[in-house]
């Protein structure tokens, strides 16, 4: 599959291609990856006052409670260390789940400031979050005019292209549709070439389809040797999936704040009787301010960075601790799997519960409650 150039002469083509793909994915009978229904999105504002959304169908916010802008900078831009690249260099970036375009806008402005030329691909099911954001003055006021032009081009034509004489030089293309189905097309073209993958899917509990061994493995194949996969997610199942893809995994420095209005998924998971419910607690850990000493042990990570290259400790990340390695070896580290690449969320969760029970019975994994006890974390129960 090759993509047409995104010149001024080809707007209709880019547009048609993008939305046809989205429609196709939405109508895939075997996949539950349906585009968000109108009315599904509610506007929220984070701790920094920036624009964000809440998805009622996923039951989850788009960004951390710190705020979308802070999260974009702290979780994605800073750990990318754009200063590693030389001025004028081409930076190849893949964004998993583009949503409102906040992370992309932050990337566009940071890479323009660093004098880099972007080559960008976005994987996203639904055009509505970007359209909604672009329609709102409080979102628009966050960005430079050139950034808004780029987002508008993406929203309307599914691509953008700017000459090297313009601020924010480079090109980008949206691959509208279920990311699982679009990723193979990207792999055909850019295997082993991508410098950065920013993974901002909904949490593993809510959207396990995009955190499976198979999906993470394909993303890993995109990475160049020094390329980095970066996410807010620190779930043991995801870190284990990245390790199975032969990536080195480190923890991002802790940031405070929760996903906007995000429920305590640890409680929800325990109520469902899910072994390894502490992976939900990893989401909840974000709810805890780092200075809450009683909970300090829980607030262990602000996300995950993975790379084929060895990663020395730095100010933006650290090596996994003994506690985290033990966590990977517990039931919580049982990865999500989706060999068919079309399974729905419920089926993926059910398969994982079976695998957890089997590995516990064989003694291959320790129970997550034993792990919690060992590290002094009380197990909470729903009444
Ligand atoms: C947490 S939001 C992304 C936030 C985004 N990075 C931003 O800055 O606004 C998750 C996004 O995943 C998208 N999504 C859900 N399931 C998907 C799938 N199977 N394939 C592609 N995108 C999906 C949703 O439409 C939503 O926009």
Q: How would you describe this structure to a colleague?
A:
This protein is α/β, with parallel strands linked by helices and 383 residues long. The chain has a single domain (11-262, 299-350), classed as Vaccinia Virus protein VP39 (Rossmann fold). The chain is built from 14 helices and twelve strands. It has helices at 11-26, 68-80, 102-113, 128-134, 137-140, 145-157, 179-190, 213-222, 236-244, 265-271, 278-285, 322-329, 345-361, 368-374; strands at 41-45, 51-55, 60-61, 90-96, 117-124, 159-162, 170-176, 194-199, 223-231, 248-252, 304-307, 317-319. The strands form two sheets. It has a nine-stranded mixed β-sheet, sandwiched between helices. Helix 2 (68-80) packs across helix 3. It binds S-adenosylmethionine. Residues 33, 36, 62, 97-100, 102-103, 123-126, 129, 178-179, 200-202, 207, 209-210 line the site of S-adenosylmethionine.
Main structural class: alpha/beta
Q: Which residues sit in consecutive blocks of at least 5 with pLDDT less than 50? A: 9-34, 257-298
Shape: globular
Mean pLDDT: 82
Helices and strands in order, then pairings?
Layout: H1 11-26, E1 41-45, E2 51-55, E3 60-61, H2 68-80, E4 90-96, H3 102-113, E5 117-124, H4 128-134, H5 137-140, H6 145-157, E6 159-162, E7 170-176, H7 179-190, E8 194-199, H8 213-222, E9 223-231, H9 236-244, E10 248-252, H10 265-271, H11 278-285, E11 304-307, E12 317-319, H12 322-329, H13 345-361, H14 368-374
Parallel strand pairs: 4-5, 4-8, 5-7, 8-9
Antiparallel strand pairs: 1-2, 2-3, 6-7, 9-11, 10-11, 10-12
Helix pairs in contact: 2-3, 7-8, 8-9, 10-11
S-adenosylmethionine (SAM) binds next to helix 3 and strand 5.
């Amino acid at each position: 599959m090759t993509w047409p150039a995104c010149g001024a002469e080809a707007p209709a083509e880019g547009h048609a291609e993008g939305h046809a793909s989205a429609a196709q994915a939405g109508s895939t009978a075997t996949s539950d990856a349906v585009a968000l229904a109108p009315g599904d999105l509610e506007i929220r504002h984070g701790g920094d006052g920036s624009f964000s959304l809440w998805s009622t169908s996923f039951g989850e916010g788009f960004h951390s409670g710190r705020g979308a802008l802070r999260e974009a900078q702290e979780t994605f831009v800073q750990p990318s260390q754009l200063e590693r690249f030389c001025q004028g260099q081409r930076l190849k970036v893949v964004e998993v789940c583009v949503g409102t375009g906040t992370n992309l806008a932050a990337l566009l402005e940071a890479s323009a400031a660093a004098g880099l030329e972007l080559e960008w691909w976005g994987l996203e099911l639904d055009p509505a979050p970007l359209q909604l954001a672009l329609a709102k003055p409080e979102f628009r006021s966050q960005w430079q005019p050139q950034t808004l032009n780029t987002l508008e081009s993406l929203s309307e034509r599914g691509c953008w292209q700017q000459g090297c004489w313009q601020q924010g030089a480079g090109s980008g293309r949206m691959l509208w549709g279920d990311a699982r189905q679009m990723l193979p097309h990207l792999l055909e073209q850019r295997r082993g070439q991508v410098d950065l993958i920013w993974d901002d899917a909904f949490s593993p509990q809510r959207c396990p389809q995009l955190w499976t061994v198979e999906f993470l493995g394909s993303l890993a194949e995109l990475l160049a040797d020094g390329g980095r996969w970066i996410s807010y997610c620190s779930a043991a199942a995801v870190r284990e999936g990245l390790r199975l893809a032969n990536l080195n995994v480190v923890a991002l420095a802790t940031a405070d704040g929760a996903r906007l209005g995000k429920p305590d998924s640890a409680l929800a998971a325990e109520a469902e009787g899910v072994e390894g419910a502490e992976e939900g607690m990893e989401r909840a850990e974000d709810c805890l301010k780092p200075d809450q000493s009683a909970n300090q042990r829980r607030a262990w990570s602000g996300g995950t960075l993975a790379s084929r290259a060895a990663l020395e400790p730095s100010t933006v990340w650290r090596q996994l601790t003994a506690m985290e390695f033990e966590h990977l070896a517990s039931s919580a580290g049982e990865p999500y799997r989706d060999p068919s690449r079309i399974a729905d969320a419920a089926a993926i969760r059910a398969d994982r519960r079976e695998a957890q029970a089997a590995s516990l019975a064989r003694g291959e994994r320790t129970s997550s409650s034993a792990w919690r006890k060992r590290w002094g974390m009380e197990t909470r129960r729903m009444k």
